[in-house]
UniProtKB/TrEMBL annotation:
It holds the Pfam family DDE_Tnp_IS1595. PANTHER family: INSERTION ELEMENT IS1 1 PROTEIN INSB-RELATED (PTHR33293:SF1). This is IS1595 family transposase. InterPro entries: Tnp_ISXO2-like, Transposase_27_IS1. It comes from Flavobacterium gawalongense.
Length: 370
């Protein structure tokens, strides 16, 4: 049986090999199936990554090899004189079970949104580890920043201000904020923008009513005069289009469309599925982490018909050498977001502190979550 597998793989007929393996599994005994599972777990995921070309701390290209660390090649920057490896600052930074982490990430991309308890059981890790690995993965999921072309739908999505998981609140039962009708200061807003070519952006902008300044802050450099914005009659969107001289077609929200061709049905569909994921599957998401889940959803949405989506997402995961810095400073970014883009009060700071590798104001401005 193993010889048959070997011959098929040598012939490079992967799909035929998969079908053959699946058909032979029922013929195995229980002990043989268990052995097969153990062998598959031992199989390593091969990481394809370009050679290190610059220092992750100062971006210098003046590098030299500098011995080994845990059987991994170390490098030294001749300018800042700091040492590092290929994984320094990336999502793999500080992770001992790197192969398990890559399998975890692959499961996120292939199986979608699954509860942490199931991930803990499958990968035999603690709940805190499963949560940390999920956050590290979501930080890196920024697939495309191309310009929006042609008819582009735009709208704001509403999610209740949520303090889920934050310890020390006087009334823990109200972590999800007050229940109030209409657009109020307890609604977290996501600006959703999508064109007909597949470009999609989902950005957390503020807590409270959306302002005109929020739109250029997030997507201003991706829209030009050739873009045709279509939306309901939201004053902020109309003001943005007028200010930047962008063609804009609007309609009453209750009508959902204007002249059949101009509508926001795509955005409405995305909003419905994202809301189901956040509030039903995941039982609510803390506002602190909402942008990360939006990145995850957007990645799956944009690449859902791409057969190479795992490779593309894995490349994004490994090429960013600021993931670690962004990850350990999520709380700092959240505090800044609350103080700058909401009328809420920042409360009960998380006391979990880690050492940052290269956290500067420049990194904060370039890679901040909000």
């Amino acid at each position: 049986m193993l010889l048959l597998f070997f011959v098929i793989l040598i012939e490079n007929r992967y799909m035929e090999a998969y079908d053959t393996i699946v058909s032979l599994i029922p013929l195995l005994t229980i002990s043989q199936k268990q052995r097969l599972i153990e062998e598959l777990k031992k199989e390593k995921i091969v990481i394809h990554k370009n050679e290190l070309t610059h220092c992750p701390h100062c971006d210098s290209v003046n590098l030299i090899k500098h011995s080994f660390f845990n059987e991994r090649q170390r490098f030294k920057c001749k300018d800042c004189e700091r040492t590092f490896t290929k994984t320094t600052g990336t999502a793999l930074h500080g992770i001992n079970k790197q192969n398990d982490f890559l399998r975890y990430f692959t499961s996120m991309m292939e199986d979608g949104f699954r509860p942490l308890k199931k991930m803990c059981k499958e990968f035999k890790i603690s709940k805190q580890t499963a949560f940390d690995w999920r956050q590290k993965s979501m930080i890196t999921l920024e697939h495309s920043k191309a310009n929006f072309e042609g008819i582009t739908e735009i709208d704001d999505l509403w999610f209740r201000y949520n303090l889920k998981g934050r310890q020390g609140l006087v009334n823990g039962r109200k972590r999800a904020g007050k229940v109030g009708a209409g657009d109020n200061g307890f609604q977290t807003k996501i600006l959703a923008t999508a064109d007909r070519t597949g470009q999609l952006d989902m950005s957390v902008i503020r807590i409270g009513r959306m302002k005109m300044s929020d739109i250029p802050r997030k997507i201003g450099n991706r829209i030009n005069s050739k873009t045709i914005l279509t939306s309901d009659k939201h004053g902020s969107i109309s003001a943005f289009a007028k200010s930047f001289k962008i063609p804009h077609i609007s309609f009453d929200a209750k009508n959902h469309t204007f002249d059949k061709e101009y509508h926001v049905q795509h955005i409405n569909s995305i909003a419905e599925r994202f809301d189901f994921m956040v509030n039903r599957v995941l039982k609510g998401v803390s506002t602190k982490y909402l942008q990360g889940y939006a990145n995850w959803f957007k990645e799956l949405e944009v690449l859902k018909n791409d057969k190479s989506k795992n490779e593309l997402s894995m490349d994004d995961l490994l090429k960013s050498n600021h993931t670690w810095d962004v990850f350990i400073n999520i709380e700092n970014q959240y505090e800044k977001f609350i103080n700058t883009y909401s009328s809420r009060t920042y409360r009960c700071p998380v006391k979990r502190v880690r050492k940052s590798q290269n956290w500067t104001k420049d990194v904060l401005n370039r890679y901040a979550t909000y």
